[in-house]
Design brief:
Helix content is about 45%, strand content about 20%. It is an alpha+beta fold. The protein has three domains: about 50 residues, Helicase, Ruva Protein, domain 3, CATH 1.10.8; about 150 residues, 2-Layer Sandwich (Tetrahydropterin Synthase, Chain A), CATH 3.30.479; about 70 residues, GTP Cyclohydrolase I, Chain A, domain 1. Strand 1 and strand 2 form a beta hairpin. Helix 1 crosses helix 2, helix 1 packs across helix 3 and helix 2 packs across helix 3.
Length: about 300
């Protein structure tokens, strides 16, 4: 039978074993979840099981660059204290470097060779869990590549070179001088870190998002009691404003608010004497979307002291 990503994820959450080990276990046991858990325990690969239930929402975002491509990864830990650990920082840096040789999919990064170790990234993370004693998760990763030009990077709240709380990649396709493109790209990456756009352009927006906004705007407009033809114009006007807020190219450029990002890129192209095109971007902010456990510290202390 085929082993789905959802099955691998479920087994990983139950055992804390590495992604590739979970896939192997499910393959060996024909997708039987309980048998796969036993298989992992037999092989001694479920050693991090108790730690796997704990929420890992701290950690670091890491970026790495090579010629014409860059990678960003998020590696989570349970505490901010671990994020300041040299060993953990080396782990994030190595995983980001390994991601450069992949298409950016988490499974591919997990299976990639960890630099200078003879191990995979997944194995290196498992070793770190055993050594440091905290649950860790390679949560997500992405790679951007361009045929010519640069992929600029920016790290916000940096704790070390290429490591921080927010990581941004920006693909710029152009035959212009790379140093100038990198300078432009870094400014746009800083803008993205600040504004968190949903998509590059209107065409890249999820149609479901547009439809939801359209419905909300229409209902709001109808409450005004205006005729349908006026309502339609009101909705289109509000949608235009929405696009200006959430698409990178239509946003007012943070470093020069009189221009949109699109206009700033066009102006840069004129100045450099050749076309400049933004091909895409990625923005990872540490822990976004993770439900953190709300702990009652006083209750924890009481439990620990038996009161």
């Amino acid at each position: 039978m085929s082993i789905s990503a959802a099955m691998v994820k479920e087994l990983r959450e139950k055992t804390g074993a590495g992604m590739m080990d979970c896939k192997t276990a499910l393959t060996e046991t024909s997708g039987d979840m309980e048998a796969a858990i036993d298989w992992l325990r037999t092989k001694g690969l479920a050693k991090a099981a108790k730690k796997a239930g704990r929420v890992a929402a701290e950690g670091l975002v890491g970026v790495a660059s090579a010629d014409l491509r860059a990678a960003v990864i998020e590696l989570n830990s349970e505490t901010d204290f671990v994020a300041r650990n040299d060993g953990f920082q080396a782990l994030v840096r190595g995983a980001a470097q390994a991601a450069l040789s992949t298409d950016g999919a988490v499974e591919a990064v997990a299976a990639a060779a960890f630099p200078g170790s003879g191990k995979t990234v997944d194995e290196a993370v498992k070793d770190a869990i055993a050594t440091i004693g905290e649950n860790m998760t390679l949560r997500r990763s992405a790679v951007i590549a361009v045929p010519e030009g640069v992929v600029a990077t920016y790290v916000h709240s940096s704790v070390a070179d290429g490591l921080g709380k927010i990581g941004v990649l920006v693909g710029i396709q152009s035959s212009a001088e790379k140093a100038k493109l990198n300078e432009l790209g870094r400014k746009i990456a800083m803008h993205i870190a600040a504004t968190s756009p949903l998509a590059l352009s209107v065409d890249d927006l999820d149609p479901a998002v547009i439809e939801r906004e359209r419905t909300i705007f229409a209902e709001q407009a109808r409450e005004s009691g205006k005729p349908e033809n006026i309502i339609e114009k009101m909705v289109e006007g509000r949608l235009r404003k929405f696009y200006e807020e959430v698409t990178l190219l239509k946003q007012a450029f943070v470093l020069d608010p009189d221009k949109t990002v699109e206009q700033a890129v066009e102006a840069a192209g004129k100045e450099l004497g050749t076309a400049v095109k933004l091909t895409g971007f990625v923005r990872f902010a540490l822990g976004e979307g993770i439900e953190k456990d709300e702990t009652d510290f006083a209750a924890e202390v009481a439990a620990a002291t038996g009161h």
